[in-house]
Amino acid sequence: MRPEGHLRRSVARCLAVVVSAAAGALAAAPANAAVTGSARPSVVAGHSTASDARQMAKSVALTGVSCSQPRQCLAVGYRGKHFRPPAIAESWNGARWRLTAPPPLRGPISADCVSPSFCLAIGISQKAPGSGATATWNGSNWKVRPGRPPSVIGRLSCVSPKFCMNSGAGGLTELWNGKSWRDLSAPEPSGTTDINLSGVSCTSPRFCMAVGVYTTDPDSMVPQTVAETWNGSAWKLISSPTHKPTSAFNDVSCTSSHHCVAIGAFFTAARPTFRAHNIAGLWDGTSWHVMRLPGAVGFPQGFDNLNQGPDSISCATASRCMAVGSFLNARTRMRDSVAIAWNGAKWRLTKLRGPKSGIADVSCPSQNRCIAVGHDGNRALAERWDGTTWKLLRTPSV
């Protein structure tokens, strides 16, 4: 891991609210945070009572999910709302959720699975709180892996136990080779002062797509989308759609080198209310085609609330994708969750069954099966999509 002084100044200062990988994880650090000191403290402010402390300790949130098969999913998250909370894990067998051995990490945590017997997770080290750590899951137990730790807790995309890509704040990208992490050099747009590669998706060791946001003026709050492709040996900056005054990509999912779908938002300036619009960018191997998604909302407080647009997307095929996240409801001034389905021709809003406060991630192992996870403030949430409707699933108590 790089010493903190060598890290690019974290994009979290002005952009992380746009591209948070787990918008519902209120107490954890941003999922794309550098591991050296960038985690934010608990959202609980003021004086705490004994009752508050007990409630915080019981709080459980699922912030990520990865399904290697329709009946094999692993969800990760955290327990408690204190600083760098202990990680938890739950597994889905197609019929019910059960608690598994927790990853030997602290939050924030990110994970991806390539089979029922291999998942890779990164988070904060339990033994060295200022450092990252890596753990692998063999279907029964977690094992902390030796070697150089990750420099950033970002998005993971694995295609085999010997190839995983990690991307996150500061435009950092890292490659897992089965034993350790290796830094990769990712180009940046000219004049970049802050950058966050908040989403990455790999279809093979020879192709990955990373997306996010960058700015050339960290004080202006006018980020734009950024996209890069990996060819097996190097990252290449590619053109990405922009919208004035500002736009953002939050995540991406690829089914081949000629088909990727990125999701995010663009913002139109209309004082005193800035209005956000959910967007999707379809990559055909050569260029992006941008579509507006349902679910546009207004911002009564302007650019102070840029956390907008779907946070996570998973595509089982080129014609079946699901995007999820949370947004600020301009009417109620509360956050709602959203799930938007793509059928190859159009996007449509779907109706989630659980509480609306915090769907954070989704994984679709087949075209008619998706699992979405999050939290409702104090409890873990999980829902299953069958191609037509969502069903709320019972999650175990921690």
Topology record:
Layout: H1 16-19, E1 33-34, H2 50-58, E2 60-69, E3 72-79, E4 87-92, E5 97-99, E6 105-115, E7 118-125, E8 132-137, E9 142-144, E10 152-153, E11 155-160, E12 163-167, E13 173-176, E14 181-184, E15 194-204, E16 207-215, E17 224-230, E18 235-238, E19 246-256, E20 259-268, E21 274-283, E22 288-292, E23 297-299, E24 312-317, E25 320-328, E26 335-342, E27 347-350, E28 359-366, E29 369-375, E30 380-385, E31 390-392
Antiparallel strand pairs: 1-10, 2-3, 3-4, 4-5, 6-7, 7-8, 8-9, 11-12, 12-13, 13-14, 15-16, 16-17, 17-18, 19-20, 20-21, 21-22, 21-23, 24-25, 25-26, 26-27, 28-29, 29-30, 30-31
Structural class: mainly beta
Overall pLDDT: 81
The structural domain count equals: 1
Main sheet: strands, sense, barrel: 5 strands, antiparallel
Q: Note the overall shape.
A: globular
Quick rundown:
The protein is mainly beta.
Explain how this protein is built.
The structure is a single chain. This protein has 398 residues and is mostly beta strands. It contains 2 helices and 31 strands. The strands form 8 sheets. Strands 19, 20, 21, 22 and 23 form a 5-stranded antiparallel sheet that branches. The protein has a 4-stranded antiparallel sheet with strand order 2-3-4-5. A hairpin with a 7-residue loop joins strand 3 and strand 4 (87-92).
